[in-house]
Design brief:
Helix content: 55-70%
Strand content: 5-15%
Order of helices and strands: HHHHHHHHHHHEHHEEHEEEHE
Distance between the termini: 86 Å
Largest sheet: 5 strands, mixed
Radius of gyration: 27 Å
């Protein structure tokens, strides 16, 4: 791909400057590390052996987990991408000089680029590579500042353990802060909460760093035990990261909302829970009134951008614990556990007001920027068990209310009414 066609140049100017600055600092650190290695003397054969062992182990790890990682990459959203490469990077940091740690990082990302992620997003992986180099340099500074000057720098007493743990925390914090900063700068509309990701994902990184300490300790004393740990590494990779992929697989790529299949599984479970708790479940179905006009006027990429902005607006107005899904082309659904009819209508009114005032900047088919002002929607509301006793009945009631709203002039909210009780009259013989 010619340099002028790199996706890097499509970033907003501020994000582009940020990415290039981080890459430049990583390059400077690499040059300084090589220069320090030359001045400090040649790399020993033991260090080259440790480098080879870690390089082979990390490559085998990546190849064995390639299927999971490829699926997770395809399903990734606007939050830090969690992986276990850090365990090899931190293990190498405890065993090797920085001039060998950096090649290991580069080798790992090069292999991932060709075998896992594909070559169309090179700037993202170069940036990730750079954040790991910066994090490794910061952690190395902590190790040296704590008095661990020579390799191997594995903990042998309480003080050295504290220093190593401080270095691990520094590695995590620097890498995490750089990635979150890139997400927020490149996506101004992204919320800080979404950019930070889930706490459980960061606990995976902490587990990886801890495992890196164990691998470094074994490599320095019992190197033949390291291959045995590969089974543990792969098991952790599958058990810790596969559930993340499975959750991500339930997310619609264009909107970040739940997929229809995830939605279809969630609704009956929530109804069963409400039945056991003698509670209620609210359902909102909403259909965008002018979505076809957006696609026809500005093009489908602009429509996708508008649809994502709508999804973000809807999520901003629902309660914590509510589920928002994309169930059709321009049709969304909101499941509101425990909500009464009044609460469902209040949420619907907030969403309707927000969408009516929504402005979205899009790129047109003529490569020009256009502003879409207002994306009105029609709403149908239904509440279990007031108007329905099953999932199908609840969805049908909300759909019928939505159809009534669209036929009645659109950009309005219609609530399904409870079915009148059946009057059983005595039958005369």
């Amino acid at each position: 791909m010619p340099p002028r066609q790199w996706k890097l140049w499509s970033l907003p100017p501020t994000a582009l400057g940020y990415v290039i600055a981080v890459d430049a600092v990583a390059l400077v650190i690499t040059v300084l590390a090589v220069r320090a290695s030359v001045i400090g003397g040649p790399i020993t054969s033991a260090e080259w052996t440790a480098f080879a062992v870690l390089a082979v182990a990390s490559t085998l790890h990546l190849e064995s987990a390639r299927g999971i990682e490829r699926r997770r990459e395809m399903a990734a959203n606007t939050s830090p991408h969690t992986n276990l490469k850090c365990l090899w990077f931190f293990a190498s940091l405890l065993l090797l000089p920085l001039s060998l740690v950096i090649p290991l990082v580069v080798l790992s990302y090069l292999y991932s680029w060709f075998r896992v992620f594909g070559r169309t997003i090179a700037h993202r992986k170069i940036f990730s590579n750079s954040t790991c180099i910066l994090a490794s340099a910061a952690a190395a500074a902590v190790l040296r500042g704590g008095g661990l000057l020579t390799e191997p720098r594995v903990p042998t007493d309480f003080w050295s353990l504290l220093v190593v743990l401080a270095a691990a925390a520094t590695w995590w914090l620097v890498n995490y802060a750089l990635v979150v900063g890139a997400i927020l700068i490149s996506s101004p509309e992204a919320k800080a909460k979404d950019a930070l990701g889930e706490l459980s994902h960061q606990l995976v990184i902490c587990a990886g760093l801890g495992l890196g300490i164990a691998i470094a300790a074994l490599q320095s004393s019992y190197p033949w035990v390291v291959p045995v740990l590969m089974v543990t590494v792969l098991a952790l990779h599958r058990d810790l990261l596969l559930p993340q992929y499975q959750r991500a697989a339930g997310v619609d790529v264009k909107t970040g909302l739940a997929t229809p299949s995830y939605w279809a599984n969630a609704v009956p479970l929530e109804l069963a829970r409400a039945e056991s708790l003698r509670s209620s479940v609210g359902l909102l179905m909403l259909d965008l009134d002018k979505f076809k006009e957006i696609n026809d006027t500005y093009g489908h990429p602009a429509g996708d951008r508008a649809l994502r902005a709508v999804g973000e607006s809807v999520r901003a107005e629902v309660r914590q614990g509510d589920l928002v899904a994309r169930v059709g082309g321009d049709e969304l659904a909101v499941l509101l556990p425990g909500a009464s009819e009044v609460e469902v209508l209040e949420v619907a009114e907030r969403i309707r007001d927000r969408l009516s005032a929504l402005t979205v900047s899009v790129e047109t088919v003529a490569n020009r920027t256009a502003i879409i002002s207002g994306v009105p929607a029609s709403f149908g509301a239904a509440v279990y068990p007031d108007v329905a006793g099953t999932m199908d009945q609840l969805i049908l009631a909300a759909d019928n209310a939505l159809l009534t709203a669209k036929r009645g002039g659109r950009n309005q909210i219609v609530s399904a009414r409870p079915n009148p009780p059946v009057d059983h009259q005595p039958i005369d013989n």
